[in-house]
Design goal:
Elements lengths: L11 H13 L4 H30 L7 H25 L3 H28 L2 H4 L4 E3 L6 E3 L4 H8 L2 H72 L1
Antiparallel strand pairs: 1-2
Length: 230
């Protein structure tokens, strides 16, 4: 999937200015980002569901095979481990990369057993079909018989990793949005409490002045009556 060149301006100085300004007040750009990413993810999920539907129509006779699903799961595990090993190697963590490759060998053994189970459960002609699966992250197709290089290229590729980042960022923005809404509700509640408190204070002062005024008038009236009697 090629979206072409991004139409937005990517400027580190502008980003720094925004991060400083956003600490002082809400600028609401995050809400725009949530809408944009939600639309992006929704489009990807729609493509995923359509691809699943097409596969179900063309591969209906083997779509319910538990053994095939197990092979797919192990393929995914191998692909992720190989991508991780390559990343560690590129960063110079050779020992860690070797440990991950050892784990890959263990998963390959499990995959071989799963493939044997799948082979025994299917007619020979059906086994050679390229049973496909749709990646839940980026909607790309994955084949049951994909080799290690293909798996590593997929799970370590820009498309797959990009969608992981998009989904993670969307989750972070949703958490931020909920937190912001809670702060705004608390702020409004605090403001209402302050207004009520000020209103009660004014009412108490008004009653106090009223009582004081009444006592003062009563005192003057008593004094006037006393003067008349004298």
């Amino acid at each position: 999937m090629d979206l072409g060149e991004c139409t937005k301006i990517h400027d580190l100085a502008l980003r720094a200015d925004y991060e400083i300004a956003s600490k002082e007040r809400d600028l609401f750009f995050e809400l725009d980002a949530v809408d944009h990413l939600e639309s992006f993810i929704a489009d990807c999920d729609r493509r995923t569901e359509l691809a699943k539907k097409r596969l179900a129509e063309t591969q209906e006779e083997i779509s319910a095979e538990v053994a095939a699903e197990k092979v797919h799961e192990l393929n995914e595990e191998i692909g992720k481990l190989l991508a991780k090993a390559e990343q560690l190697g590129a960063e110079g963590n050779v020992d860690e990369a070797q440990k991950v490759l050892q784990e890959v060998e263990k998963v390959r053994t499990r995959k071989k057993d799963a493939e044997e189970e799948y082979r025994n459960s299917m007619p020979a002609s059906s086994f050679q079909q390229q049973k496909l699966r749709v990646c839940e992250v980026c909607s790309a197709y994955l084949g049951l018989h994909d080799n290690d290089r293909r798996l590593a290229d997929h799970f370590g590729g820009k498309l797959h990793l990009g969608f992981i980042q998009i989904r993670e960022k969307l989750d972070q923005l949703k958490v931020w949005s909920r937190s912001r809404d809670r702060r705004r509700r608390r702020s409004r509640s605090t403001s209402r409490d302050r207004r009520r408190s000020r209103s009660r204070s004014r009412e108490r002062r008004r009653r106090h002045r009223s009582r004081s005024s009444s006592r003062s008038r009563g005192h003057r009236h008593t004094h006037e009556q006393s003067s008349k009697h004298k």
